[in-house]
Amino acid sequence: MNTKVILALLFCFLLVASNEMQVGEAKVCQRRSKTWSGPCINTGNCSRQCKQQEDARFGACHRSGFGFACFCYFKC
């Protein structure tokens, strides 16, 4: 067999194998916090509240309408 053909087949195999390995990644879903009230100014406080009161993985302040709201992130 030609060396170029073998290298091309090996390259294709590596591409397929690398795509298969990414399937195991956990997806993260977001939703607006159910316990936060008022505008969200400090992402650290939002994240702490999401973890402690809503069992989320983390939280962050994001623009929502004319202000900022606290969003919590959960494993889907």
From TrEMBL:
<dbReference type="GO" id="GO:0006952">
    <property type="term" value="P:defense response"/>
</dbReference>
<keyword id="KW-0732">Signal</keyword>
<dbReference type="InterPro" id="IPR008176">
    <property type="entry name" value="Defensin_plant"/>
</dbReference>
<dbReference type="Pfam" id="PF00304">
    <property type="entry name" value="Gamma-thionin"/>
</dbReference>
<feature type="signal peptide">
    <location>
        <begin position="1"/>
        <end position="18"/>
    </location>
</feature>
<keyword id="KW-1015">Disulfide bond</keyword>
<keyword id="KW-0964">Secreted</keyword>
<dbReference type="GO" id="GO:0005576">
    <property type="term" value="C:extracellular region"/>
</dbReference>
<feature type="domain" description="Knottins-like">
    <location>
        <begin position="28"/>
        <end position="76"/>
    </location>
</feature>
<dbReference type="InterPro" id="IPR036574">
    <property type="entry name" value="Scorpion_toxin-like_sf"/>
</dbReference>
<protein>
    <recommendedName>
        <fullName>Knottins-like domain-containing protein</fullName>
    </recommendedName>
</protein>
<dbReference type="InterPro" id="IPR003614">
    <property type="entry name" value="Knottins"/>
</dbReference>
